[in-house]
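Q: Give me the 3D complex with protoporphyrin IX containing FE.
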Amino acid sequence: MTSPIIQELDQHDTSSLVAVAGHPIHAMLVTFPIALVTATLGCDLFYWWWGDPFWHRAGVWASGFAFWLGILASMAGTAELLLVKGIRKRAASWIHAIAGVTLVSIAGANWGLRLAHPDAVLPLGLLVSVLGMVFVGLAGWHGGKLVFDHGIGLMVSGRD
Ligand code: HEM
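A: Here is the predicted complex, encoded as structure tokens.
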């Protein structure tokens, strides 16, 4: 018997449209905000532990790049969501988008906080970084679920 996932793929194709040589651009880009949000938390912990201003400056750069590369990754994800009918019609895709947008907003708030109030890194910035990590986990895990449980973004169909 054909799996229900393959039956759904047959009805509405979920293959990635925003891809280079068959590789979804969103999947390639999300590694950057994931790594940089994690790096921001690392910088805050090192700054807390050692008090070296180097880690304070590194945190400003890490959070800034986490935000802007998160915007870039989200643009690729949003294009995919809006352009591909099989992706657009699944509730799971929209839940993932909400988690992703929340994560990017937290990354932006973290960067803005450091630019506007450099003295607020401890403890507020650290707490925002921890919240960012929680959403990296939620958005990242759920993104994987889209691919592995729902077959979204895979270049296959029931006919393959
Ligand atoms: C507006 C925001 C976002 C939208 C609309 C979105 C949409 C999507 C879509 C449609 C997929 C399926 C694979 C593909 O077609 O590329 C996906 C996968 C994924 N997304 Fe997002 N996404 C967003 C933001 C994010 C962010 C900020 C992260 C960072 C944690 C993220 C992490 C992932 C991961 C890890 C995958 C699985 C990729 C793989 O391993 O193949 N997404 N997303």
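A quick observation: The beta strands are 19-20, 23-24.
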